[in-house]
Design goal:
Number of strands: 9
Distance between the termini: 35 Å
Number of helices: 6
Radius of gyration: 15 Å
Shape: globular
Order of helices and strands: HEHEEEHEHEEEHEH
């Protein structure tokens, strides 16, 4: 099993990332996923909601398109020349292996090749999957870390950002 990431590695992930996809982002402002999204957006991250119903979710007075699936989101970002840096997961622990499979399936999608449009590329996988407080799953962790993706579980990205990057 991979070692726990160091504070230095987590700090690097947070400072080098710009786009965070939140799987299970609720439109209910009282829910933890919504509070985390508001905080991260206020810190300058681009937040992309994944919600099974799709539609729109308002975060800090800004309406965001909510994608029904991760694949739909990844295709849209690719069309705009953007990529997913971090996927933050608010789903039950027993759903995490399926989420891991969906993330790994992104590598099977075709991405635009800006240097040679005739030769598409495999879509880039996210750098990190962050699984929120109280959520763990050994199977998901193994799948994602074996694919070279940083995996953080049972941890709140908002609290870690405040702890490691707040300007005190």
């Amino acid at each position: 099993m991979p070692e726990k990431l160091t504070d230095q590695t987590i700090r690097h992930l947070l400072t080098q990332s710009r786009t965070i996809v939140i799987i299970g982002l609720s439109s209910d402002e009282s829910k933890p996923s919504h509070k985390v999204a508001c905080y991260l957006q206020a810190q300058g991250y681009t937040i992309i909601p994944i919600h099974p119903k799709g539609g729109e979710i308002q975060i800090n007075s800004i309406r965001h398109r909510a994608f029904a699936t991760l694949q739909e989101c990844a295709r849209d970002l690719n069309e705009r020349g953007e990529k997913i840096d971090i996927i933050d997961v608010f789903r039950k622990s027993d759903a995490l292996p399926q989420v891991a499979d969906e993330i790994l399936a992104l590598g099977n999608l075709v991405a635009k090749n800006p240097e040679n449009p005739q030769k598409p590329l495999a879509m880039q996988l996210p750098t990190c999957v962050w699984v929120q407080l109280g959520l763990t799953n050994a199977e998901a962790k193994i799948k994602l870390t074996q694919a070279g993706i940083h995996y953080i579980e049972d941890s709140c990205i908002k609290l870690e950002h405040e702890r490691l990057l707040s300007q005190c």
